[in-house]
Amino acid sequence: MNITGLRSPADKVGSLVYFGRMVDKIRLHAAGQLPTDYIENLGDGFDKVCANLFGIAYSAIVERVKAGGTDEEVLAWCFENGRKLTEQDLMVWNEFLRKRGWNDAGSARLAQRKAESGFTAREDIQTFFQYIDADEGR
Fold first, then answer.
1. Domain ranges in the chain?
2. Of 24, 60, 70, 77, which one is least surrounded by beta carbons within 10 A?
3. Chain segment 20-43, per-residue pLDDT in tens
């Protein structure tokens, strides 16, 4: 399902993958435009891991996004109000998420999601980012 205003998890804001997608979901939900299937997992999964990266409660990030500003301004707020991240932290984050589901603890869940979506034969889908993009028609 293609959702207007919801970017790929691989798209970066500043130096981080996924962050922009999380912000998109928060904005879409606040505007009443996020599909119901997505609402149940808001603040969980990759959203939770992203908030934990900064050491900031997901609810605080939601409030900051709702206060307005660009993606870059929200990211700057997270950098200022969360734990200080090094270049290595950012690199590990990006590579971990970019490869999540490929020969790791998430592989079984990825296989399950692929089966639920009718993608079992799609050998090109080896990570969650690839799955999300395929599921959303990218």
1. 1-84, 100-138
2. 70
3. 999 999 999 999 999 999 999 999
